[in-house]
Amino acid sequence: MCKWLGEKNGEIQAVAAILGVLVGIIGFGATAWQLRSANYSLQASNTYTIQHDARDLAAQVLLRGFVKKLRQGTLPTEEREDAKNDFWAMLNFYLSVYRQLEAGGINEKIGDAFGQDFCQLLSEKNMANAFDEMLAEKRISKNYVAMREAWCAKN
User: Fold this and answer.
1) What is the DSSP string of 1-44?
2) pTM of the model
3) What pLDDT is stored for residue 48 in this prediction?
């Protein structure tokens, strides 16, 4: 037996090397599958949180009514700062969704839905004017402009 093993040493090493490579490929495949599965779970969790937070923010903004008046062009001057604060909260929320999309934390379907909503909002003259005003006041940064360019160029 020892003589046979000695004679077949090269073949045994070749088989062992092939098996080692196969085990490595299987291990790599399993790791990739686990990472993909973890990413899907992360995206599902983030999507749930984003949708929950969106409902909460919408309820607060609707309750206060300032953004509605801003959109309609019926906002009294003394309420403009309150409206811009609520609008900033909305823009900040959209930016967080955009960043999650860019980082792969949500899927494109959800990101596109929020992007369409954002672009629809900014397609309204009064809202676009408020956006530009806040940008000029440095209340929002170039990050918001980049988001608008990325999302609204598609929509």
Assistant:
1) -HHHHHHTHHHHHHHHHHHHHHHHHHHHHHHHHHHHHHHHHHHH
2) 0.75
3) 74
